[in-house]
Structures
1.
Amino acid sequence: MAPEQLLDNTSQTDAGATANAPTPSAKDSEKSVVEAYFNSTGFDRWNRIYSDSEDVNKVQRNIRIGHQKTVDQVLAWLQEEGNLAERSFCDAGCGVGSLSLPLAALGAGSIQASDLSEAMVNEASRRATEQGIDPARLQFSASDLESLEGRYDTVICLDVFIHYPQEPAEQMVEHLASLAERRLLVSFAPYTPLLAVLKRIGELFPGPSKTTRAYTLRESGIVAAAERRGFRLVRRSLNQAPFYFSRLIEFERA
Ligand SMILES: C[S@@+](CC[C@H](N)C(=O)[O-])C[C@H]1O[C@@H](n2cnc3c(N)ncnc32)[C@H](O)[C@@H]1O
């Protein structure tokens, strides 16, 4: 996604296991770090990026532009298929509602939007109220996407896997696929040799963390994870801007 993230050199903080508590898995530790980040400095940063605020630097402005391309591409694909009013959607890791809000405005039947960060989901809910969106059609909850249950026509998860290594990300894809009746759309920062080099260069520079740890993912593994759950790739696009690089894939149940 963003070299602002890709060049980051954050080291993982200890999740605080005690002698009596079960040791958290590496994935749980990763989630705790991500949750804390998006409830504090990350909320402030991403809430500004995903808004019209002028209070963004050049990198953040470009991330905003690139991310909007991903959102616009998803909305275009969903509208192309049509029947929005008859379909149910799950927006996993919804952030401040950059996808859910316009999707509701386009007349989606029902949307369950959730995010690990309470701060992000509260802001999404505030924006929905501000825009006069019918709360009966767009519902919010704070949740880890791997705790989500239920069945939805279409499950969408945009730019969330940047925070997780390959194996946990693939497990997340499998879980999301299990919730999807017909369609699954995911976007993530794809592994490329160039980005790998940039990330390695970034790790050479000492200094305070700007954000959470960031991961690029091998597309073949993401596709294989969806296939294990009975989905096949329908189409894909690469959405980019300076400092933003995101592979979007649409899967359908085979
Ligand atoms: C870069 S933002 C993208 C937000 C939104 N999907 C969008 O495209 O506008 C990443 C979001 O993923 C959320 N997130 C990270 N790990 C998550 C998890 N395990 N379950 C649910 N949300 C998660 C973060 O809290 C954050 O809001």
Note: Strands lie at 88-92, 110-115, 138-142, 152-158, 180-188, 231-241, 244-253.
2.
Amino acid sequence: MTTKMAINAKDIFRNQHRLIRFIEQSIRLCSNQSLKTAQKHAKQQAEPDFQITTSISSAYTAAPEPIKHDADVGQQFAAVQLAVRLASPQQLQPKPDNDDALSFGKVFTDHMLKIYYHRSLGGWQRPEITPLENLVMHPAAKVLHYAVELFEGMKAYRGVDGKIRIFRPNMNMNRMNLTARRSGLPTFEGEEYIKCLSRLISIDSEWVPHSEAASLYIRPTLIGIDPTLGVASSDSALLYTILSPVGCYFKSDSDGAVSLLADPRYTRAWPGGVGNRKMGSNYAPTINVQKEAAQKGLQQVLWLYGEDHQLTEVGTMNIFMFYVNENGEKVLVTPPLSGLILPGITRDSILTLARQLGKFEVREEVITMPHVCELLNQGRLLELFGTGTACVVSPINRINYLGTDLYIPTMEQEKPIHEWIRETLTDIQYGKIDHPWAVVID
Ligand SMILES: Cc1ncc(COP(=O)(O)O)c(C=O)c1O
């Protein structure tokens, strides 16, 4: 009898996380039901100009062309080879108490994914999931000298139905492989990586926040680790992935908007450079300018380019402007993919959704500061906002340009377009709208 009770207690102890998850999901489903009813009611009363899209045609969901590997990359890895070494009970970390108060990238989950590449051993090696642990590398490793490093930023969302989803992962894989090629690092099969990543997320699934204000940030990283000092392509590399539960990345004013420093003395990217690739070396030189912005009481940097002061990006976000043209028509515009800006997945998704909505013109064209000033003076600028995985949309309320504060009326609009965008994208990400962009993790 005592032994039986001990076994039962052991079983309960071992499965307590499942029980907690079940209770949390039940509470969540109940509260979501009442939340949904309240939201539906509120929406009916507000009679918005913009309808929330509940079905999006497959014509708008095309995946990018898979990358073709160079012949000398060698063998690819496959998810079926994945080896798993779980953390011991002593290695497990306590999970954050309050999902809504998470700051960015300070807490990490219990496991990581590692895939080594050694040209001398034939190419990509067997993928492995291990406890989160420090990396050991030779002090001559290329990443430490020539910044041979690139990364991605993705998120896993716990949906209103309790399922975990990731958003358009094939787009991240495509961008990562393009960056790998530009960095002299080996390319890999994105689909196989996504399968390994899905396994990592399901092992650490308890770390995916139970909140729509938070998510699990995914940081795939690829580094050159050859122990040689030559500036040359990497014969050894490590593709690793860490996970971190996060809230929103950007600090904002009390009205939820950000203020920007636009100083034409600084630029982030230039034609022929790598502004359109997500490599670590693009980010280090921005840190001091960001510090200068903070010292002036501004939250982000608006990166300008060229004699005509073109707007390129906001901090680590793409930029969008909503305005009224000379004919009185509303236009949504974002800079084109000219090589100066990162091809954001949020940017692409917004262009797709807005074009499908068909309520206003959607353009990809150069925006300059003189044009912004002119629109402001004529009362035709409605909204400016940054977009990215970190925060979906980040409205802008002020730009400090050539020492003058320009006040942007983004937060003064009655039915702002950036709110429609945020709602539509998060509805997809958190599973309120069934959509092929949101991929369920088994
Ligand atoms: C420089 C830069 N621009 C734009 C973005 C937004 O891209 P995405 O929408 O894919 O997150 C990011 C974030 O990855 C970024 O680092």
Note: Residues 258-429 form a domain with the D-amino Acid Aminotransferase; Chain A, domain 2 fold (CATH 3.20.10.10).
